[in-house]
Amino acid sequence: MDILRNLRRLESRLAKKVNETAQKMTPSNPREPLEIVHAIVETVEKHIEPAGRGRYVFPFNQIRICIAADSSLTRARFEAVFESEPSVQQRIFKTLETAGCASTGLIIDTIYVAQPEPHWTASDFNLEFDRIHPGPPPKPECDAIRRSLKLTVVYGAADQQRYVFTTSRINLGRRQDVRDNLNRLMRTNHVAFAECTEEPNPSVSRRHAHIEAAGSPAEYRLYDDRSAYGTSVQRNGVTIVVPPGPRGIRLQSGDEIALGEARLQVEIETAGVTVNCAS
Q1: CATH number at residue 177
Q2: E strand or H helix at 78, and its extent?
Q3: How many domains does the chain have?
Q4: Is residue 23's pLDDT more than 50?
Q5: Is 183 exposed, middle or buried (CB count within 10 Å of its CB: 0-12, 13-18, 19+)?
């Protein structure tokens, strides 16, 4: 009897092991986009913190939603569901407001990747929470270098043909004010291509790219903001693709920026100036 009992136990363990191995080798049915929307909102809700006396706070001001979409068809399905009324952003704002949490200044971005990263807590999506504190304004330096960036529209219809900037960040996109479905301002484009159907404007995303002034006086870097049709730089007959994310590409005078099919000519100027350094 003991031998038979031991054989049954061994058989049970082997069957369990085979079943676990089969589950790992056989992918589970993927969740529908709407199921993932509900899972995203539930994850955000779990990060609401009690603040005492029946009050709650949301400790973050940035949320990045990462979605695993291995094809353009899968991405299209997610975008259609995420942007439909109520959108995933609206659901998140509503959840926070229902809990009494202030959502002013909260930025929600959605990005799509081909494969999930190893650190993701779910196989089909991941949320990245962050709290950004604005730093103090830079102190002026004596004998500073004043720099300016000139952008000329060479292909496409924009609010202006030529722009001159001395600011540290320049947003590029379609439409000046980008708002969500609740008319909340999400972004202001400093170079704003017109909202029209004539080429090449439809190839410019509303939040297409941005330029930031870097450390050295004459350095500007171009970043792609997960645009639909991509960002690149034409330099001496060579096309340099700007990868989405934090790397960016350093700009040079004479470069031509491609936002989808639209084009901007780059000119960088620097000049020595004396700044009043009195405290």
Answers
A1: 2.60.200.20
A2: helix 72-83
A3: 2
A4: no
A5: exposed
